[in-house]
Amino acid sequence: MLISTINVMSIPEAWWACMRQIFIDGIVYTIERGSFEGHLRREFDLAVINIQEPGIRPLVPNVPIGVPAPTSMEYIEQYLPYLMAEGKADNEDYTYGMYLAPQISKVIEMLRNSGQTNQAYLTVGDPNTIDMKDPPCLRGIQCRIRYGKLHFIVYFRSWDLWAGFPSNLAALQLMKEDMAKELSIPDGSLMAVSPGLHLYDHSWKFAKMVLGESECSQTCQADI
Prior knowledge:
Layout: E1 3-8, H1 11-25, E2 27-30, E3 40-43, E4 46-51, H2 73-84, H3 96-113, E5 121-123, E6 138-146, E7 149-156, E8 159-160, H4 164-183, E9 187-194, E10 197-200, H5 204-211, H6 218-223
Parallel strand pairs: 1-4, 7-9, 8-10
Antiparallel strand pairs: 2-3, 3-10, 4-9, 5-6, 6-7
Helix pairs in contact: 2-3, 2-4
């Protein structure tokens, strides 16, 4: 197993760095179970991303003219209730908010009263998620006060690099900023860990357009 480590300042920089690195470290395989079965997916063995100043604006990456934007702040604002609010629509198996919302106030209170703890963990899912056709990708958020700031360490079991990565991280950053305000402490770093950070084959052409010929490795050019 190869650990791919990305250490950057901002969320857009993390996206660009992972886009470049996945064509160096990622393996290509055919999906046998999950989204887009039968298609190809290029995936890191294990990605560890450390974003030192995730609050740097803009939170979402800019892309060259002619490339469809992977996300936008308008989308992020619409996505936030899915992440932080309870309840779900009749056509939804779950939302992150239905798991996270009941825990957020408890974690804030825990950190307010006992900042130096490893128990401030927000869990996504329950034993029944194993039976879902598409179980949650985000599975947990470790909330930690260290060096006087609030930091997040998040775990994704599977994670779409093209659109999911920038959308999820921007929304999680806004959530972290809100929690830091509640705690009256500065906002800190954002670390993400995933054994399933990937690009689907239908995104490869966009990745090549974003990276450009000079950035793409020979493997990237051959696969797309």
